[in-house]
Specification:
Elements (H helix, E strand, L loop, with lengths): L10 H14 L1
């Protein structure tokens, strides 16, 4: 899982996170 606090998220990062959440849900 990504460390969401490691850095500010870009729009692309948000899409990647959303995709990972959908996969791991």
């Amino acid at each position: 899982m990504l460390d969401l606090n490691s850095s500010t998220l870009t729009d692309l990062d948000m899409e990647i996170v959303a995709a990972e959440l959908a996969i791991n849900k």
